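Question (not urgent): is this output format expected?
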Amino acid sequence: MTTTPDASSLSTKVTVLFVDDEPAVIRAISRLLATQTGFEILTATRGEEALEVMRAHNIDVLVSDIDMPEMSGLELVRLARREFPTTLRILLTGAATMDRAINAINEGEVVRFFAKPFEVAAFTHAFNELGERILMLRRERYAEAQRERCAELFQWIEAHFPGTLDFERNESGEVVLDTARLKAYLGTAPDEVRAIADVG
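Got this back:
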């Protein structure tokens, strides 16, 4: 059964999770993005902590330093890709780990990487573009969920009440629908179908 879309699916809030084992770097990048983009910024200093944050919050973009103790950024984005496939993933990398970051792009684990130290204007511009992309994808997913919702509803109606959806049209070509009759039909539907149809 398709999850019923709601208004929260069209939220314009973009949430970014930054992961770096250096608190000073986290503070600097968080302040920069919060002031330049208006995104909600969450932080973590370890890979495991980052995964816990992702399980507790809807994260749009995961940004991780590649070179961290215990769990590297590369390991983190691989785990995030499996558990949170719709979250965009970005790596921050130094010269020593550049090849690994490029491989991560080629393998589809990250959408891009930034070499440290990075140019501030280019960095914030890229994130503003990502924000626009996220909102567009969100609208597309909402529209697709709405289409699937309608298709499921029509399928149930036709299966239980054949011919109900054979609409009549008036002289202007407009569909003539007996809504009272249709609502009465839906009143006998299972709870999950009633939820799809928003029948109280």
